[in-house]
Amino acid sequence: MSNVIAFRPRPVAEPLRRPRCLIRAAREGQAGWKRDRDLKRLLRTDHCPAPGAALPRLRAEEALLNDARLQRAAEYDMHRHVLLMIAILAEMRAAVADAPIAVRSAAQMGAALLAQVGAAISGPGTAIPARP
After folding, report:
1. Where on the phi/psi map is residue 44: left (φ > 0), alpha (ψ -120 to 50), or beta?
2. Is residue 130 predicted with pLDDT exceeding 60?
3. How far is CA 111 from the centre of its chain?
4. Helix or strand or coil: residue 51?
5. Which of 14, 25, 56, 65 could in theory staple to 81 by disulfide, Cβ–Cβ 3.0 to 4.6 A?
6. Would you place residue 128 in the very low, low, confident or very high pLDDT band (cuts 50, 70, 90)?
7. How far apart are CA 128 and CA 132, in angstroms?
8. How far is CA 56 from CA 27, 30, 61, 87, 119, in A?
9. How does pLDDT run across 11-50, given as a tens digit for each residue?
């Protein structure tokens, strides 16, 4: 008998829409997050997976907890939900940091281009007056 729990994978493009207080708690928890210690304990494994490899499992388990939260189920564990959100945010950051330099530089160039376009659009002379 295996001790591996199979979770239904969720599409990566699906955005996380959660209550503001849950996201705020997860962001605050980033300061105390130690990947080697906390991810192993959260996943109940002996070894940490590669950065980003645990994201599908974390998101699937978080989705189950979110469904329990929405249904106001008695088995909802808010503490574990916050820990999962902390882990998801940390793993997303670790996956981006671990990405090949070419991918990161392309993403940074894309972000810089978007910032330039946004600055050009919102530059002087294009603002719409509040009251004509």
Report:
1. left
2. no
3. 19
4. coil
5. 65
6. very low
7. 9
8. 20, 19, 9, 12, 36
9. 555 677 889 999 999 999 999 999 999 999 999 988 888 8
